[in-house]
Amino acid sequence: MSRTSIIALLIFGALLGYLLSFGPDTTRKFQAGAYQLVAPFLTKGSGLQKQITSVRTGLKSLEELEKDNAGLQVENRELKATNKALRDVEHEVNRLRHALNYRERSVFKLVPAEILTRDSSTWWRTVTINRGKEDGVESDMPVVTDEGLVGKTTTVSNNISVVLLVSDENCKVAASIEGTREQGIISGERVVGGLTPLLNLNFLSKQANLQPGQKALTSGVGGVFPPGLLIGVVKSFHARELDGQAQLNPAVDLSQLEDVFVVTGRK
Questions:
Q1: Rounded to whole angstroms, what are the CA distances from 144 to 39, 94, 172, 205, 251?
Q2: Alpha-carbon distance 231 to 148, whole Å?
Q3: Which helix (H) or strand (E) holds 74?
Q4: 80-110 burial string, b = 16+ CB within 10 Å, else e?
Q5: 104-130, pLDDT tens digit by residue?
Q6: Whole-model pTM over 0.70
Q7: What is the CA radius of gyration of the chain?
Q8: CA 20 to 30 Å from 193, out of 8, 40, 101, 160?
Q9: How many angstroms separate the most distant Cα atoms in the chain?
């Protein structure tokens, strides 16, 4: 055994003997002092444990919040879908109420009809409706909505009819301009793609000088269309070599047709 080890052993023995010589009170005081020195470390350890527990609790709350948020998002989507469905129902009710009011106040006998088919190749030319001879529909009867003229029936079977739209170039309508003595013939125009066709009002006088917004109505000439049906409103006018021509915006949005009326006579 080295000299250093012997000295360390003697010092330890002396300290041990010194501690054993203490009485009970002195021993308790010594223990209290030792605990006092160690207490800050114990307190820090306890605080660290509390912080760890708090973080774990916070993580759990975050998971719950994420779950609640996901649930709220699902509920929000469901509410949006329900709201859209209610708006669609409201739109349908208003549309049908509007059509019913028009039918009641109209001076014409009107047969209600629904659009069955629209061929993309003849989108601006013809539509098919669910009314025919059994409903009192014949060829060359005007077809209208509460907004104005749609066209006229052509081929008619027992339960189905084809309607030639006013936007077709083969649909000719005698027309007059409201508030003037100008009269002419309206026909549609052939268009390509998704362009909305305009209506051409020909055979006007060169001095007509029609203004945008003026209304074009059926004149009753020709016997197919009764007078007073709104066809469209003037968009532009220009004088040609022999006559004047106006371009009209159709009164009816022909791209959004759902329900129409066939005019079968007067009340």
A1: 95, 18, 15, 28, 10
A2: 6
A3: helix 24-105
A4: eeeeeeeeeeeeeeeeeeebeeeeeeeebeb
A5: 889 999 999 999 998 888 889 999 999
A6: no
A7: 46
A8: 160
A9: 139
Domains present along the chain, CATH in parentheses: 1-79 (no CATH), 106-266 (2.40.10.340)
Per-residue pLDDT of 169-224, as tens digits, reads: 999 999 999 999 999 999 998 876 667 889 999 999 999 989 999 999 999 998 89
Q: Which of 248, 257, 261 is nearest to 123 (CA)?
A: 257
**Alpha-carbon separation of residue 65 from 5, 71, 72, 169, 183 (angstroms):** 64, 10, 10, 64, 72
DSSP E strand boundaries for the chain = 108-117, 126-129, 142-145, 148-156, 161-165, 173-177, 183-187, 199-204, 215-218, 230-239, 244-250, 259-266
Give the burial class of 208: count Cβ atoms within 10 A of its Cβ; 0-12 exposed, 13-18 middle, 19 or more buried: buried
Residue whose C-alpha is closest to residue 166's, from 144, 184, 138: 144
